[in-house]
Amino acid sequence: MKMENNFGMIFNIQKFSINDGPGIRTVVFFKGCTLKCTGCANPESQEPRLQILWNEKKCLHCNTCVMSCPTLAVKNLEGKIKVNHELCSGAGVCSERGICIEKCPAHALKSEGERKTVDEILKIVMQDIDFYEESGGGVTLSGGEVLIQHEFAVKLLKALKEKNIHTAIETTGFSSPAIFQRVIEYLDLILFDIKHWDEKKHKEKTGVSNLPILKNMKYAIDIGKEVLPRLPVIPNYNNSIDDAKNFVLRLEEVGAKRVQLLPFHQFGENKYNLLGRKYDFTDVKALHAEDLKDFQKIFLDNEIEAFF
Ligand code: SF4
Ligand code: SF4
After folding, report:
1. Are residues 99 and 235 in the same domain?
2. Does residue 258 share a domain with residue 136?
3. Ligand 2 mutation target, pool 65, 74, 78, most atoms within 8 A of CB
């Protein structure tokens, strides 16, 4: 993603997180992703630019948004408000919050994504410094995919390290080795999502090969970085015993000794509705740790610490 290095496109900053690395953490969510995973839990993170979300339940169908947009980006198509993001100049550009958002009488529109500087993010992050120190926590960069805004990420990570804050990343690991190596220099922990052991199946659901990801993971482990591979377990995609055995082989190849299993859930479903997108997993049953005992056992039997 090409963006001025002084700004990052951020879609959320979440405080008091306890699931994204050790201790109490602040998670900074970067917008934009190179992978196009169907069923992504944060679909609003996939598009690098700002997006306008429409809440059908709140909408009065008054068409104020259609008539007020200066770039004619908003249309009412058979009762559904659609924003053409190619035409939208973006909130903060057409007006501070976006004319359509400001004028909507029902608060049915909101924007996703905000340009933020390192200093603006630091100001928020530093509010909880005492909690990080007491709990052994810190800051996690997540997304979307942080690596596509790598220059901004490096600036932010350097600033965090100058304040002696523990740094982690949640990443797909999909980038050139040069970019990956530059970013991880400033990281204490790398949480690495791996969707499938098989390259063809990985491409089917994400649009990209898993080979650069595995290569980057191996590099990080080889140089002694703390790495935690994380495996979203999805029914009828990667949850068979055969899949578990092949995942073990991949983890052994890269030198990983542990893996976190993330049972499939439908947390992101409502966001697809707000974005006007189809959700492919509506009828797929959610998984729980107890459903994956046999799957987990394959890892444990091969001396890979697998946990939930
Ligand atoms: S943010 Fe501005 S340009 Fe974009 S759709 Fe709304 S009114 Fe139009
Ligand atoms: S201005 Fe708000 S209430 Fe009116 S049509 Fe647009 S989204 Fe719906």
Report:
1. no
2. yes
3. 65
Same domain, 195 and 158: yes
Classify residue 223: in a domain, yes or no.
Answer: yes
- Ligand closest to the CA atom of residue 83: 1
* Whether the Cβ atoms of residue 33 and residue 145 lie closer than 8 Å to each other: yes
- Say which residue the tokens 């035409």 belong to: 87
Residue 3 lies in a domain: no
pTM for this predicted structure: 0.82
Q: Compute the radius of gyration of the chain from its Cα atoms.
A: 21
Report the chain (308 residues): mean pLDDT per 10 consecutive residues: 68 94 97 75 74 92 96 94 86 79 95 89 97 97 93 97 97 96 97 94 90 96 97 92 97 97 79 69 80 95 96
> For position 284, what pLDDT does the model report?
74
Tell me what pLDDT residue 34 has: 78
- Distance from the CA of 15 to the center of ligand 1, in angstroms? 29
Determine if residue 35 is left, alpha or beta; phi over 0 gives left, psi from -120 to 50 gives alpha, anything else beta: beta
Indicate if 289 and 204 belong to the same structural domain: yes
pLDDT for 93 equals 72
Task: Please check whether residue 162 lies inside any domain of the structure.
Answer: yes
Identify the helix (H) or strand (E) that includes residue 181: helix 177-184
Residues 222-241: b if buried by 16+ CB within 10 A, e if exposed: eeeeebbbebbbbeebbbee
Nearest residue CA, atom 8 of ligand 2? 59
1 inside domain: no
Q: What is the C-alpha to C-alpha distance for residues 275 and 277, in angstroms, rounded to an integer?
A: 5
Cα gap 207→205, rounded to integer Å: 6
